[in-house]
Write a structure and sequence with these properties.
Oligomer: single chain
Pfam families: 7tm_1 (PF00001)
Number of helices: 8
InterPro entries: GPCR_Rhodpsn (IPR000276), GPCR_Rhodpsn_7TM (IPR017452), Prolrel_pep_rcpt (IPR001402)
Organism: Pleurodeles waltl
Membrane topology: Multi-pass membrane protein
Strand content: 5-15%
Keywords: G-protein coupled receptor, Membrane, Receptor, Transducer, Transmembrane, Transmembrane helix
Number of strands: 2
Distance between the termini: 69 Å
Length: 223
Amino acid sequence: MRFSRKPRERNERYYATVHPLKKRISVTTCVYVLGGIWLLSCALVAPAIAHTYYVEFHEEGFTICEEFWMGKKKEHLAYAYSALIITYILPLSAVSLSYICITVKLKNRVVPGHPTQSQAEFDRVRKRKTFRLIVLVVTAFGICWLPIHLFNIMRDIDINMISKDYFLLLQLLCHWFAMSSSCCNPFLYAWLHDRFRSELKKMFTFRQKIIPSSNCVAGNVML
């Protein structure tokens, strides 16, 4: 499910920016789309589930749950490359394409009326910030998910390519780095999006309760 969420979010932003007046999909269509995503996700992990085994090492005193493709090296590599394409290359391409369309749409947008020089400069600065934000969001998505895919491909091609002493640590760090992509966007928006940053400041700003001066005068008179 994770590999389909990012392109779906970008697709919503694409239609909201490029085709703001276009009719949105119905609830029924959404149900079918979500059902298709679930079926595709289940189909994608089915080969891995079919070749995953629970192995106990009694003498060593530990147990593992891992994929074993005994005698099926070609099938294993075919599945690994297919997973790489479906879960990384295609989503990254879809995200990049949708953001390119959004950038072109924003670049060709014209300020209505006869804008002053300051208004035109403000619009140029805003477009520049939007472009930087788009590039950074796409780059963050690509960079965060790249290590885990490289790790999986190296493991599937030849597990000896990865040091046994650091295998679990590298696997943990790669997964952690991939999951960190979910928290990158808020920081990028807070850094480059003026409205988002101002609203965030309002949310965390401590509001002091100010007593009107008339109340203070009345209190002094009573004393």
